[in-house]
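Training component of the fellowship. As part of building independent skills, the fellow (R.M.) carried out the full modelling exercise for a liganded target. The chosen ligand was magnesium ion. The inputs are recorded below so that the supervisory panel can assess the work.
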Amino acid sequence: MLGQISREQDLLRGPRHVAIIMDGNGRWAKARGLKRSEGHVQGYLNLREVLRYAVEFGVEVLTVYAFSTENWHRPQDEVDALMELVVTAVHAQTPELISEGVRLRTIGDLSRLPDRAREALLGVIEQTAHNTRINLVLALSYSSRDEITRAVRALSTQVASSALSPEDITEEHISRLLDTADLPELDLMIRTGGERRISNYLLWQGAYAELYFSDAYWPDFGREDLRMAILDYNERERRWGKTSEQVQALSEEE
Ligand code: IPE
Ligand code: IPE
Ligand code: MG
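Fellow's submitted model of the complex:
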């Protein structure tokens, strides 16, 4: 029992910034003889739940992969259904996001989204801008390579105009030009749906993130699954290239 309590206390010292690759909606639907788009609806409903558990577990930023740049190549009817779901979800959720203190943000290239979806998102981003309880970051039309390419383009413009010289470019310059510029360091990346890959998600930001893979399809990923992922994270030692002894000495200094 005491052990149980100390594990629960550990949970409170969990990751600040958690990213989730919400994978497995299509297989969840297929297993039930439903259309893939119905799996996405269920996935959206589950995100509402998981957001509440993330608040409960003290997560400050939850960054979820909702639609990748590569997902534009899916069948048009599936892409259309997902974009419609963005509009419906934003309209349905806005009052609750406001009342629950959730700040909604996005990463990715919103310019590729249909106008209706982009406008709905920009509206809720503005309406929740002062909320502080948790940040929900939706990765939409996002991929790391696309994000880094856009950052390199912006940096090249500064160099071309002589505002910056190449030898002065630091990692900090690059970080500041990424879509995640004002988010804290990524601590934990979870992928549901059984695959063990990153699929172009937060490659720069995840350099030292802990990885956790769950076999649950996203619509089935629940409170207990998130709790297990966070407990697993808490038991790991993050070393950032240092030795275990160095890391322990540093944490004793704190
Ligand atoms: C993830 O679920 C959601 C999106 C990519 C939009 P999938 O649609 O990839 O589900 P599976 O992997 O086919 O089961
Ligand atoms: C990653 O899932 C993207 C999202 C969850 C939005 P995918 O289903 O697109 O990834 P792959 O194709 O299996 O790598
Ligand atoms: Mg998938």
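The panel noted the following from the submitted structure. The mean pLDDT is 95. Residues 2-253 form a domain with the Undecaprenyl pyrophosphate synthetase fold (CATH 3.40.1180.10).
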